[in-house]
Amino acid sequence: MDAFYASVEQRDNPELRGKALVVGGAPNGRGVVATASYEARKFGVRSAMSSKRAVQLCPHAIFVRPRFDAYKKASQHIREIFSRYTDLIEPLSLDEAYLDVTEDKLGIGSAIDIAKAIKQAIKDELDLTASAGVSVNKFIAKIASDMQKPDGLTFIGPSAIEAFVEKLAVEKFHGVGAVTAGKMKKLGLFTGGDLKKLSLEQITGHFGKAGAFYYNIVRGIDDRPVQPSRETKSVGAEDTFAYDLSTTEEMFAELDKIAKVVSERLLRHGLKGRTITLKIKFGDFRQITRSQSHTEYSDNFDAILDTAKALLLSAGIGDNNIRLLGITVSNFSSAEDNGPETHGQLKLF
């Protein structure tokens, strides 16, 4: 989807259309940008950027709080559209998914035509735009989907894949973050073509297990299947506060709210976990985590809250103020203890 959260807000509020819009964070510079409209992106505003930086780049931006219920409703409608064409759907988040259309439920006969039909249905039924990438594997399709945003459709056929990847800048490789891209450039590796010159031994020597993936990708090889169901590894929630918390009472009050959200999500999805992790971000942006594992599986609010409080007290925060707290539950019970072994992927906010 194209600037999904921002596009939903602009669709539902005509006054926001054509405006530089930021979803998440706050105009006072606190918090983090969830997404930004294309009007704001022209000024350099990006998701995961601090609100403070967003305001510096685009002082006239309008900030709105996220409405995740609205985004989830739209996402469910989009998923229903996908299911008209294939049952092999692997959601990555509320606004992105892989589709394997080999099955071609409607007998259309062309992946490009299927992508066009899906894009048009999303436009007609939700008044939103999507961009699609069409290719023979997940890696190339993902890159293609970003090439002509917004409202784009890019096809990269089998005969064009190797030449395309050879020219691709390493930072454009899906899964290559800033740190890895920096390491590659220090080694003189700026494009897929540069990576292709390395032997399997050389590339794994530099990048470990990921090296084997890079070795195959630059040759257009990606055999990962589209997985309609994937095991959920963790469920959590976090919050960035309007002002830094300085007292234990304030921190406990916020942990109470966060623990309730986490417990409700666990109950909703029938999950119980043994490991509880507390995330703490200080006023100076330093970040730490603390974890504790129990012998019993639980989705209980009191158990989650008590553990989070104990982890906070044991973290030795001293006189440091806190700008963010988060709680995550993981290490879920087995199928015998807790129902089905796998669950649809959860993108929780």
TrEMBL record:
Q: Which GO terms describe its biological process?
A: DNA repair; DNA-templated DNA replication; error-prone translesion synthesis; SOS response
| Keywords from the named record | Cytoplasm, DNA damage, DNA repair, DNA replication, DNA-binding, DNA-directed DNA polymerase, Magnesium, Metal-binding, Mutator protein, Nucleotidyltransferase, Transferase
GO terms assigned for molecular function = damaged DNA binding; DNA-directed DNA polymerase activity; magnesium ion binding
Query: Where the protein is mainly located, per its record?
Result: cytoplasm
Complexes and interactors: Monomer.
* Function, in words: Poorly processive, error-prone DNA polymerase involved in untargeted mutagenesis. Copies undamaged DNA at stalled replication forks, which arise in vivo from mismatched or misaligned primer ends. These misaligned primers can be extended by PolIV. Exhibits no 3'-5' exonuclease (proofreading) activity. May be involved in translesional synthesis, in conjunction with the beta clamp from PolIII.
What name is this protein filed under? DNA polymerase IV
Question: Origin organism of this chain?
Answer: Mucilaginibacter pedocola
